[in-house]
Amino acid sequence: MTTETVSSNPTPAEARRGLGRVTLEVRQRMPAWKHGLILALSLSCGLAIGVAVLWASGVAPKGIYEEFVLYTFFNAKGLANVLVECTPLILVGLSAAMAFRVQFWNIGLEGQLILGGMGAAFFALNDIGPPETRLALMLIGGLAGGALWTVIPLLLKLKLNVNEIISTLLLNYVAFQLLQDRLYGAWQDPDRFPHSPQLESVERLPRIGFGDVDSGIWVALAAGIVVWWLIQRARIGLFMTFVGSNARMSKAIGLPVTAVVAGSVLLSGALSGLAGFVVVAGQEYRLTTTFSGGYLFSGIVIAFLARNNPLAAVVVAFLLGGLYVGGQSIQIFYNLPAGVIDLLQAIIVMSVTASELFVRYRIIWRRA
Amino acid sequence: MAVSRLVLGGLLSAALSVSAVGAANAETFKVEGEMKPAFIYFNVKNDGGWVQALDEARVKVEENLGIEIPFTEKVEEVATQIRPAVERYIDRGYNVILGSAFGYSDTFKELAEKHPDVLFLNPAGITNGPNLMSYYGRTYESQYLCGMVAGAMSKTGKLGFVAANPLPLVTWTVNAYALGAQRMNPDATVNVVFTGAWYDPVKEREAALALIEQGVDVIGIHVDTPAVPVVAQEKGVMATGHHRDMTEFAPDSTMCSSVWVWDKFLTPALKAASTDGLEMQPYGAFLSIKNGGTDIALSDAVPADVKEKVMAARQEIIDGKHVFEGPVAGQDGSEKVAAGAHPDDGQMWGMDYLVKGVVGSLN
Q: In order of start, what are the domains of chain A with their CATH numbers?
């Protein structure tokens, strides 16, 4: 088997001390079980550091277990809170994964989410269509709003090769200004505060009868299945893998590269837009200036931890929802600063990032 | 983004829900059993402004009442974050939930209906009920006093004001600032700049620099960061603060600040809730200097004679004088408040004009 040596030569000092030498070899391939094992180990390592940090802040392991496991996942109220929390997280995670798979770094999830919420609100506030189809129209409005917000960066990228990280990021601010313009203007509630009027009951996603969980969770899970099918089963998924690995080669062998990228990115925007729809119609029941908060970072973290795999994204979103809910609970009962929870999340993300080294390289240690 | 919370209201009462609620009886709410309050902050507790002022009040209330009041930070203004935080507290026996944001209004309303035995108090909120009360301060009173200081200290007679969004509760601070300044210097003008955001130190900085370039030598604020007093200090001009005493950030430039004194409201309110019952108000509590929402903090740089005049005006306000007592003229000279009259609370919450001497536009 051929391997490529990346770094080797030990310093003479090391050799003399008899420590041997460490060689990194690029792996050609890695069996799935091994990949999984490395991920699991790195995740455990991150969790262990997280537990240590919490312990050092005065939360004993028993308390950590109770708040994060018992009261979060094995308690009806806690589980319901996690499901509510993870509904939009699933969608932004899928959205990020969809774009990242074709190497389009969509940092505009939040702007697309805002436009999705606005698209949904447009149908609701203008009472378009009969009441029975209102929610369906709002859903379409969400999809369309989100997709629309990727068109400009997409065109800029495809036609002028403008860096999409910059263009999508900046459009988040434009989206927020647009939202403010509506909420201080045409869509302002008659109470003259900067939010829209409340949605009517036909415009709200019904609760499913478990805590405060709304039917947005079905929308999110359905989106997960659709994206899974597209990526793992449909031909476009195979194309996406090709284009993501090597766009020039894909072009050379005749794949419709532009169409694949455009389709993936538009779908990515649509999924973030859908997240805006479920937040507005499922929980907030109106547009506010704060409904989009925090989903950009969460979406990227989910896609990253899930390695852009749609089913994994659903699972990671669920766990991240648990981290948020449990983290809030830890904060409440141990009076920890909010920063500790951000720190936990960062430790876990960094542990998984670090595991990349072991996935990409074989580490060989030879005695001198 | 923390954009909206300071927007307040409960009381927009008259203006908006004209007929909805008739003369509601003064109902009281009494907490059963041992009182256990908890605070929910929409941001970190040391944000330098709004939340920090609430947290400082929390500590004082703890001392005054001899109880412990836990808090949770960064519970953002979305139902999915507010609901679990509040319910965790309630599940473990907490019976007074203290909010911190306009964006909590809807969810607090929902939770208050679901938990009728728990008291909810929310500053800058706009919802009320039998066990839910929003509260806010009459910032036009404290900003009027700051305007007096600014008018007295300014050499050019040209003042500036950096404001967030053109909402009535911001508009009235700009107007009151101008009226206060004109009391000390009838020719004083106030150039106002709206940044369009509550928290945007970069824009606030730019606005302050632009104002200074136009010859302004004292700048007032109604935004969330100390950026403007800091720029004023760098450029050797004066400033007045909002939320908290800004001498902490800009000791040389800050002449005075409009500050929150929530403990003066919360201490008696919580005490009442645990004893005879807290009198609930259908439109919320709209607190004046007299009953402890807002006040002025003067710096040592203000000369004694100015201090004296300002404190005398403060006493007049406590004794019942309305800052917008007519005659008040609009920007174009038209009469906005007739001589001897003053706007009622509903009109205050609907304030959609700038007064004479203010340079700028609400649009």
A: 80-335 (1.10.3470)
